[in-house]
Each structure stands twice: as C-alpha cells, then as structure tokens.
Design brief:
The chain contains 9 helices and 15 strands. It has 306 residues and is of the alpha/beta class.
Length: 306
C-alpha cells in the first residue's frame, strides 16, 4: 500500500486518497483491514496481559439507552414474568421463570460497524456492487457475520489527558494530533492495532441530544493517518468516531475513508473511562461480534485485558 499524502500540519483542507485496500487481500475479501491480525499479531498481543484484569469497554444498552433520535429505540418485551403467576399460571413443583425478548437497532449502544454500513457511488468496499445491500436479504456481501472474532493489540490514545480535559463540542483531532499522541506516549503504530480514541464525550454528554449532534472526534486527515498506520479498527467514546458536524460540510468523510476505502471497521459508543483510569495505553483487545447474517453492524461488549 502506498503512503498517503497529508498536506498540512493541523488539518488538510484538500485531502487526497492516493490508495485504498481494494483487492489487497483478494477480490473476494470481506474482512478488510481485520486481515492484518494474523497469528503472530495475536500471540504478541497476549503478552500484554500482566495483571489479569478485565475491563469492559461497553456502554449500557437497553430501553432508554444508546439510540439516536433517527433510529428506533431499544425495546424490551416480557414473555413471562411474575405477573403471569399472580394471574394463575402453572408452576409445576414450584418452579417459576422469567423470559424476555428485545428489539434493538444494530447501530445502537456499543457496536461495531460492518463494512456494508457505508459507501459512495455504486460500489461497496472492495468493489462489491452496492446492489448487494437489499431490503429482503440484508447485506449479501460485507455483513456483520464476515467480521469474525477480533483479538489484537489495543492502543488507547487518551486525548482527555493529552489536551488537559474533555474535548469541546465539535473539536477536531487531526493527523498531527494523532502523531503527537503516539510520540508523547512513546508508542509506535503497529499494523493490526485496534486504535481507541478517548474524547471524554460519553462521560460529558452521554444521553443528551448534543451527544449525537456536536461530538468531537477525528478529522478526515486523521482518518487517513490511521489508515496509513494500518490500524485494523478504530473506535471512540462517541456516536460516530468522527467530528460532527464536519468543518468542511462533508457528510461522514471519516466513515467513507476508513470503511469504504480501507476496509477499517469502526467501533462506536465505547466507554473508555475505566480503561483510562488504569493508566495503561496498550492492552489485549477482544471483540466478538454477533454472527448476524446480513446485518450492517453488531452490538458488542469489547473488553481490554491488562
């Protein structure tokens, strides 16, 4: 993959994508940059576990949590509860039970976007025709079931600490900021890393309308920097990973750059507070998507092992 040109110190006004990952792992590839996580990468990542401590990176999900106004809310339906027994339901031998069903948009709460989630023009990632996204069958190509299990080195870039406090509404994280963050932490990007970006936005604005409308996040040139670093996925403690609204008036350019061009899935709505308090910046990252055939995302509870 050729290097990407990033033309300014703070933020490029004209960002050119000189390369992408289409065809890099073959014409039939549906995993994208997750292919960078090989056996050697997994084994080296296991060595990062020193304390045997598990930290959940997921926000709570359920009715009233995690869904923006334009999506259906998360709903719970009780199939059997104590009320059934109060009304005379049989309880053989005294045994009673409760069961429920849930309905939730796959892009609510903490989730990973499948590569079928976004595109431009008539082609999905890796040049699959956009006609493969159908209302009757879902994502015939690049669905959530193609993501597979993810075990790799996680890297926390904590901009709350690096900037001296939670980021402000619509504050950008540029390529220069990302590069400086690595240098300040004494880290070097490695192919296959899961790069997690803490903005403080979830703790500051979680549950408020502004959480979905005015989030700080990475800029387009920041996305290209991470693609050039060969990240396998990028996640953040906000709604869409990228700064909103885009300062140049574009519509989700980071989504298009990372997922559509480079096949890098996004993990959205993370809770990075406990991980930040651990003062650990590299860790074993594990995320197991649900094998939701044809879905454009999967709810998940990613974890960090330190």
């Amino acid at each position: 993959m050729s290097l990407l040109r990033i033309t300014s110190r703070k933020r490029s006004k004209t960002v050119s994508i000189e390369s992408n990952n289409w065809g890099r792992w073959g014409a039939d590839d549906e995993r994208g940059a997750l292919n960078l996580i090989d056996a050697e990468k997994i084994l080296s990542s296991l060595a990062l576990v020193e304390k045997g401590v598990i930290i959940s990176l997921a926000q709570p999900t359920g009715p009233g949590h995690g869904a923006p106004p334009h999506r259906n809310p998360v709903s719970r339906f009780m199939d059997r509860d104590a009320g059934d027994y109060a009304l005379g339901a049989r309880a053989p031998g005294g045994f009673k039970f409760a069961e429920d069903s849930i309905a939730l948009p796959t892009h609510s709460g903490t989730h990973i976007d499948a590569l079928a989630h976004t595109w431009s023009g008539d082609a999905l990632y890796n040049n699959f025709p956009a006609s493969n996204i159908r209302s009757t069958k879902g994502a015939v190509k690049l669905g959530a079931e193609k993501l597979g299990s993810i075990v790799t080195r996680g890297v926390l870039l904590d901009f709350v600490k690096l900037f001296g406090g939670p980021l402000k509404p619509s504050q950008e994280i540029s390529a220069a900021d990302l590069k400086q963050a690595y240098e300040d932490l004494g880290l070097s990007p490695q192919p296959g890393d899961a790069v997690l970006i803490r903005t403080g936005w979830w703790k500051t604005m979680g549950g408020e309308k502004e959480y979905f409308d005015l989030e700080p996040g990475i800029s387009e040139d920041g996305a290209l920097y991470l693609a050039n670093c060969e990240a396998s996925l990028v996640g953040s403690d906000n709604y869409a990973v990228e700064v909103q609204p885009d300062p140049d008036g574009k519509v989700f350019p980071v989504h298009l750059a990372l997922m559509h061009q480079f096949g890098i899935p996004l993990v959205e709505n993370l809770d990075l507070e406990e991980l930040a308090q651990s003062n650990v910046n590299t860790f074993l990252f594990i995320l197991l998507p649900l094998r939701l055939e044809g879905s454009t995302a999967s709810p998940a509870t990613p974890i960090a092992l330190i």
